[in-house]
Specification:
There is one protein chain. By secondary structure, the chain is an alpha+beta fold. The protein has a domain at 5-64 and 92-148: Aminopeptidase. It has helices at residues 14-27, 39-47, 130-144, 159-167; strands spanning 5-8, 55-63, 92-104, 114-121, 149-154, 171-182, 185-195. It has a seven-stranded mixed sheet.
Length: 196
């Protein structure tokens, strides 16, 4: 498995964030959102965020594959073909695997120490620890930004997500019955919280 690193998101990540978010919307496992996003919409969303509501990404950086062409002879040399050793590393290709954000819980002043969060992982990387790393970093960022509590709303049938939240110290507050209408079906949401 490739290594990955976490870093703050930039406007250049908007297309990858939109793609991964749209997978989450289409898969109906993590959100009641139904409208797909565009790179431009996500770019505007990123630029409108306050410093207390950061967005982070997990990315893997791998060197580009080398050419399959045979080595060429050095110019001006007689005799058998020789190759020069490269003195630089091949350029790296960055791939966004997942993203997460701290979000406002409410616009009311009394709630300024409570944040909601989002974590979305590219389909091929789900279940490989990337979501856990992102959420652990969001918890750290929540503390750094002075939040007292993180909250979430999830689908109870998303067993992997609920297990992850419990592992990282979130507790169930309750269930909202028939909280949203998704594809013509009423769905429940589970409410969880973690004091920081």
């Amino acid at each position: 498995m490739a290594d990955y690193r976490l870093r703050p998101a930039t406007g250049q990540d908007a297309a990858a964030i939109a793609l991964i978010y749209n997978q989450g919307i289409e898969d109906r496992l993590a959100t009641l959102e139904t409208e797909l996003r565009t790179a431009d919409e996500r770019r505007q969303w990123l630029s409108a965020r306050s410093p207390r509501h950061p967005v982070i990404v997990a990315e893997t950086t791998e060197p580009e594959t080398s050419s399959n062409r045979p080595p060429t002879p050095r110019a001006g040399l007689a005799g058998p073909a020789t190759t020069e050793r490269a003195t630089t590393h091949p350029p790296a290709v960055s791939t966004i695997l997942a993203w997460g954000s701290l979000n406002p819980f409410s616009t009311r002043e009394a709630y300024r120490f409570v944040a909601d969060f989002s974590v979305y992982v590219e389909r091929g990387w789900r279940g490989k620890g990337v979501g856990r790393a992102l959420l652990a970093r969001l918890i750290e960022l929540g503390r750094e930004h002075g939040y007292h509590k993180l909250v979430l709303s999830a689908f109870p049938f998303n067993k992997a997500g609920v297990a992850l939240y419990e592992t990282l110290g979130f507790r169930t507050v309750g269930i909202y019955r028939e909280q949203g209408l998704l594809d013509g079906q009423w769905v429940d949401t589970i409410i969880m919280e973690k004091l920081l």
